[in-house]
Amino acid sequence: DIVMTQAPLSVSVTPGESASISCRSSKSLLHSNGITYVYWYLQKPGKSPQLLIYRMSNLASGVPDRFSGSGSETDFTLKISRVEAEDVGIYYCGQLLENPYTFGAGTKLELK
Amino acid sequence: EVQLQQSGAELVRPGTSVKLSCKVSGDTITAYYMHFVKQRPGQGLEWIGRIDPEDDSTKYAEKFKNKATLTADTSSNTAYLKLSSLTSEDTATYFCTIMGPGDYWGQGVMVTVSS
Description:
By secondary structure, chain A is an all-beta fold.
């Protein structure tokens, strides 16, 4: 199975500042079709996960452009610019390249 | 707009089985693979498996192959997850989801295994 490793496990951010979360996969997530199958999700307290970024760098529908995704074949970054109170929750990276789909352990974002 | 509506919370006895439902509205279920994800209290996300309602083909994560069974009923636009031989390790919230660029999640259903 592909292992997804996230860092840090938690991050505390001042509102208005930026935050970055890293994710590393144990195998390249670049498909032969040129698409990199890493996804980013946010799970707000008591809610279902919601998609933020798909295929490494594409913003999901309705997601503010303060969120952005980037990376290579195995190393990925989610950046949140101008953090707001509504961004609090746990962020997960996930790989949808092959079964079984797997997720990172999550990064908890809190406000200072 | 596609919506996924899951069945209600379950309190079940160890050793028994439970069947959870996930009804799709806003589109036909055969347009999507239906995935199920497990989340134990305070823990991360685990992919259980997926079903293609078009042909009932399934894929499971290895650890769930003897635990979970996925089925679908196209007439009611509903997918099901059956969990068998329940233990305390199965106490969790279970989500149904359509994963991909078009991403939809059910509200989750809490299953508590307790005598």
